[in-house]
Amino acid sequence: MTGPRYTPLAATLPSTVPFVGPEAQERARGRAFRARLGANESLFGPSPKAIAAMAAAASEAWMYGDPEVHDLRAAIAAHHGCTPAHVVVGEGIDGLLGLLVRLLIGPGDAVVTSLGAYPTFNFHVTGFGGTLHRVPYKNDLEDPEALVTKAAETGAKLIYFANPDNPMGSWHTASKVQAMIDAIPAGCLLLLDEAYADLSPPGTVPTIPADDPRVIRMRTFSKGYGLAGLRVGYAIAAPELVTAFDKVRNHFGMGRIAQAGALAALQDQAWLAEVKAQVIAARSQLADHRLCARWRLCPRGAAGVGRAGCLCPHAGRRAP
User: Fold this and answer.
1) Which end of the chain is more exposed for a tag (fewer CB within 10 A), N or C?
2) What is the pLDDT of residues 81-94, one digit of tens each?
C-alpha cells in the first residue's frame, strides 16, 4: 500500500501553522486564560443590529450563501465610493491573502515584506513556493522606502505593507503611504493591509483611486466591527484584478449568516464610531496602568512615591 503522492513543494514544507490559537494553548496548559489578547479581538462585540440580522439569517442556513455576495459587495462599494466591480469578498483577510498569492506567486518569485510582519502572509508565500525578502523595521515602524528599494533590487512581484501595522501597532501618515505607492517599481503590486484602518488615527488612510493598478487594499470585519468569528474580509482593487479572483476563489465560501451579519454591521456606522471611542478610552487606561507598573519599580521614586518630574501621571502620589 502507498500513501498520497505530495507535490515536491508540499513534501518539503513543515506541518506548522502561523498561529497557535488560544483554545489550543488553554488545552495544553489545562486552564483558561484570564484575557484573550493575542488576536486583537474586539471585546466590545458586534453591532446589535448585526446580531439581529445573523439571528434572522440562521433560519435560512439550509441554503448556500449568494456566491456573488451581491448585496454585501454593493454596500461595500457604496461605502468606499467605488463600484462592486472593484470589490472582492472572502474568508477574512487571511483567505484573500492566500488567493492573491496563488494568483501572482509561483516557485522562486520574489516577494518583499517586513521582518516580523504578519506571519500568515509569509505562510501563503512559502506554500506557493515564493521567495521571501524581509526588510527590518525602523524605529518600530515598517520602512516604506526600504521595502520599495528591496522590491526594485529583487524584481519582486508583490510587497506586503500593513498600515496601521500588526504586530507593532504603529502607523504611517497617508502622505507617507502615497509616496510609497508612487515609488513602486513597474510590475510590482502593493498589498496594503488595512485591517486596523477603522480604528486608526485621522490622517492615516490615504485616498487611493480604486482603479489604481499598483495597489490592492484589504479590509476586515474582524476588528472594529467585532465579527472575528465570522471570517469576512474584502479587498478593493482594479476590476481586472478583482475578476481574476473568480478564477481561484471558493465561490460558496461565504455563508448566508456571515453575509447578513457583515452587511448589517457595515450599515451601522454609529456602532463603529462608538467602538472606536471606547477603544481610544481603553487604550488610555491601559497606558495609565502600564505607567503605574513602571512607577512602582522606578528608581526615581522612593517608598512607592513618584518623584516630581516623573513621566507617570501620578507623580507625587503614593502608588495604589
Assistant:
1) N
2) 999 999 999 999 99
